Amino acid sequence: MSVVVAALYKFTRLADYRELREPLLDECLRLGVRGTLLLAEEGINGTIAGDRSAIDAVLAWLRRDPRLADIEHKESEDEALPFYRMKVKLKREIVTLGVPGVDPNARVGTYVAPTEWNRVVNDPDVVLVDTRNHYEYGIGSFRGALDPGTSSFREFPEWVKNNLDPTRNPRVAMFCTGGIRCEKASSYLLQQGFETVYHLRGGVLKYLEEVPEAESTWEGECFVFDNRVSVNHRLEKGEYDQCHGCRRPITQDDKLSERYQKGVCCPACFDELTTDQKTRFAERQKQVELARVRGEQHLGADCAASQRERSAISMEE
């Protein structure tokens, strides 16, 4: 039986978000669901995985709260659970921009349905911006999209300040993995005086789900914040693996490099990591391999999932 992977978020006022944590975690654990959900006063965000009935039950549990009754989600499938455990975490923001006063609950840009996206971004007066991080852009993006070159979403406002001007670029279209970063980014751009800000409803994942590949302007694969690392246009597990030293996506060619060491480093981070870090990562990988031989699961293998919780959709995406 295939595993359903559901990415979800909702900006809404959750003044009691701390009290929601334990009941939500208990429900997920009872149903055998794994993944990470973030709760904050501004809403909920995360990705969970489980069998069909379990995912439906969690979504039904959430939607019983009137504030989450219309929560949307995107689905894909995997052959096995792409997470090691279930976590519900309390945060200041469900996606971290780090700019006070940016409130998608009060004001956001203009949603564009996936089926309308190509028409909107083909307008030469619209500037198309990828709000994701540089390693995400590197494995796939929309044709003609600008890459801000950021390593975290917190860097996006500075890039906007240095590269966009509301008087010269009054119309901007933005996209991200599941739609959440664009909610906050569009609110920020409107705050900065941009006239019209479009954002892709449901993000890249919804676009890949609804737009036929023959009509698509998406090129490459889409990075996802779980153990699949990336998905292709059919929302199947992609061709990329992940370096457990820097957590960047890596190719099979990267693994052939003299600078690649499984579980330790890759060509991109070989010169970035200290000797101490490489030693620690090598010991961790050794323990992972020993546990595998014994038929056990070593929690050190969860490093990819832990990083995705710190990365900026799901987590800090």
Automatic annotation (TrEMBL):
Keyword set, alphabetical order: Oxidoreductase, tRNA processing
Keyword field contains Lipid metabolism: no
Pfam families: Rhodanese, UPF0176_N
Signal peptide as annotated in the record: none
UniProt xrefs under InterPro entries: Rhodanese-like_dom, Rhodanese-like_dom_sf, TrhO, TRHO_N
Calcium among keywords: no
A molecular function (GO) term: oxidoreductase activity, acting on paired donors, with incorporation or reduction of molecular oxygen
EC number: 1.14.-.-
Domain of life (superkingdom): Bacteria
Domain Rhodanese as annotated: residue spans: 122-216
Top EC class of this enzyme: oxidoreductase
Reaction equations catalysed: uridine(34) in tRNA + AH2 + O2 = 5-hydroxyuridine(34) in tRNA + A + H2O
Gene Ontology biological-process annotations: tRNA modification
Family per similarity comment: Belongs to the TrhO family.
Protein task: Catalyzes oxygen-dependent 5-hydroxyuridine (ho5U) modification at position 34 in tRNAs.
Name of the protein described by the UniProt record: tRNA uridine(34) hydroxylase
